[in-house]
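Pair request: fold both.
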Amino acid sequence: MTKTARQLHLGAILAGVGTEQNHWRHPDLPGDASVNIDWYIEHARKAEAAKFDHIFIVDSPFITPDTAPHFLNRLEPLTLLSAVAVSTSRIGLVGTLTTSYWEPFNVARQFASLDLISRGRAAWNVVTTGLEGAARNYGREEHFDHALRYRRAKEFVEVVEGLWDSYEDDAFPRDKAAGVFLDKSKQHRLDHKGEFFSVAGPLNIQRSRQGRPVIFQAGDSDDGRGLGAAIADATFAAAADFDSALAYTTDIKSRAAALGRDPDHILVFPGVHLVIADSDEEARAREDARIGKLDFQKSLVELGRFFNYHDFRRYDPDAPFPDVSHLSLNSYKSSAEKVVRLARSENLTLRQTVERVVASRRSAFVGSPKTIADEIERWFTAGAADGFNIRAGEASGFDRFAAEVVPLLQERGLFRRDYEGETLRGHFGLPFPQNRYASARLADQAAE
């Protein structure tokens, strides 16, 4: 992928009944959307018709009674995406699985299976699990320390990618006349022994037409950015405004370059909440109404999620922001630390802190279809993003984006009018990853 061929990429976040407190009440949204496979297939097909690169499924393994509606009751990502795979033909399929509470062999096998089922459209969003409470769902009393779980994640991905190379691309001649199913010289054990994992291999499944699944990563802490720069083909950026998006993209690509990687081969996708209307004024009024309807007590619960669901309702809301130094901040570390820094630097009360956090949810993409297209173009051409993940939970907003914003982006030559390839790696313009053993053999032959 060259600078002259740079193309905007679009993903659709399918989050069912929503990750905000009142999203599920929207009249266009079925109350069972998060467990309704027909809803997911419908929206995946809409995104595919609009030539989106991928759909994106978020996940986490811990809830409380106060958790947002979508998190309370939702389908497991790989099961969901396998159903969507056979109901679509081109759109990429990105699923979230944690490295903290799975094993590399299982994850390698599951995503390799999805990659074959989808004919080369799978991607793994690598996360380390932010919520400390997840530990007790997997037989542990305490969550892995923040730095340790990122070291574990890096080794985890290395093992998975090694397992994905267990077979060279031509390992299976399937010659019935000769009775040869497998060329045994092209099957390879991994024999990995590291700090966290000991995995022999080989994996019992071949590579796909895109070589191996695409790797996404979503951590925003220093450790998270370091991991993304090292292992990711694409990153999910939690950037609420242009300046923070540009700073994040510049940082992650610089880190990748410092590691010897081509910075064009790590794509950055900020998440976007759309508010589309016929005019900018109407769109801003809709956003004001949405923000104004947020319940303060529920907003306190949402704030607590950054702190492993610490109960902020126990404090006087008009007293200074409480001292949370006794908490480990080992869950969503970067988000929790940002909240603490904000409250301390401006001497905010708890109520003021919540109001500021809620206000930060205001979107940069509010307005008429033209205004939103203009803002997407500004971010993209300035290098603040390579693409965007669009939240598709509210049918009317997503439908208008597909019907009215996408054509504007196409007219400007920013976005494809049709798919040029069949794999997610091809949509992203990423190089085909050669099998390590085949590459080593070719290098040895060239040296002889």
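--- second member of the pair ---
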Amino acid sequence: MQTHPSWHRRVWLLAVPIILSNVTVPLVGAADTAVMGHLPGAANIAAVALGASIFSLVFWTFGFLRMGSGGLIAQHYGADDDAAIQNTLLRYLLTAVAISALVLLLHAPLLSLCLWLLDADPQLQAMTSDYYAIRVWSAPATFANYVLLGAFIGLQQTRRVLAFQLLLNLLNIGLDLLFVVVFDFAIQGVAIASVISEYCAMLFALFLIRDHLRAAIKHCTPARLFNRTAVLQLFNINSNIFFRTLLLVGSFFYFHAVSARLGTLTLAANAVLLQLLYICAHALDGFAHATETLVGQAVGARNRGHFKLAIKAATVQAFIVALLFSTTLLLFGTQLIALFTNQTDVRQAAAVMLPWLVAMPLLSIWSYQLDGIFIGATSTAAMRNGMFISTVIFVAVTEMFGEKLNNDGLWLSFAVFSLLRATTLLIKLPSVYRQIPPAPHAS
């Protein structure tokens, strides 16, 4: 099946605003790292890296609020079912409120558990605790923002995604500079900036989606909101994504923990490299999000032809952009590392690992695209199972080769992890296609 040029244009129209918005997400982490990286000692960079990894574990474990809402709303959008869109939005927002209350209630034991797992230097643990004690209060806004962002993507309102992300992340960067550079609040300033930004962005997103919310509240009844079939579907989708995301975030947490075991310098160097990788990953995720919403729309419309065309157009373009990223890192990697820190030892340690970073966009693009396909189709059990297999092998390979090859061994196992994520989903892709009910108008 040849891909009509209109599909490439359609992918670009959806992907470009999301790419622009997504790039601002890791720029916050990059700004955090760069601001702390120009303070004395590698401990400042390392503490921010540990703090960010804890919040990835605690917060993004509930990433089903974004992925589940986006996939379901995309399907309801394809089926032209406004009532289902409204009910789904309300269900996910109520779930976000419940989860944020739970996280705030358990925030102290969660921190203790994470610090015990990390087993980092006592100085790093103290700095990380200072960061966590402030940042955790962003939980209600963060979880609501996951839902609202998923709704925008599912409704193909990519300009609103861009506006939302620009406000959230550029405000965060500006407040970073204000609190750390001007007011000298150090790591506490980074945390305060994140909390303020999340709440401001939440208010803005609620304003943008006010029409859907008004309609949802106006027509809301307990019978519709707590419909047994819909609630069970939401539970099945979300529980699978929850365990899948817990494993994914846990893998990155494990990466930081092994880096900490290898020493503060290695942890700081890897933190810089991961910031560059996050920029590439979030940009490439723009194509995955475009795939997600187009696949969800095709599934909702029962159109197998559009399902295949969306995947082909988005994946071809994603690979081309991944190749451009790898080429850029190859040519300018050392200069990019220098933007994050003025400390010679950290720069040198990061530069040694640069070949691994160059390879990562080309190794990981396939898993990003497949994630988008499976989220759009809400085929979440396969995502959970594939991530379990990938994570187990990642940890096993790291423990086998990590001490022998040091940081090279860690990056080797991380590369294997990326390829396994794609392979385990690719095997299941034909079954996703077969699950789409054929319709007379399918092409």
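Observation on the second member. The CA atoms of residues 338 and 347 lie 6 Å apart.
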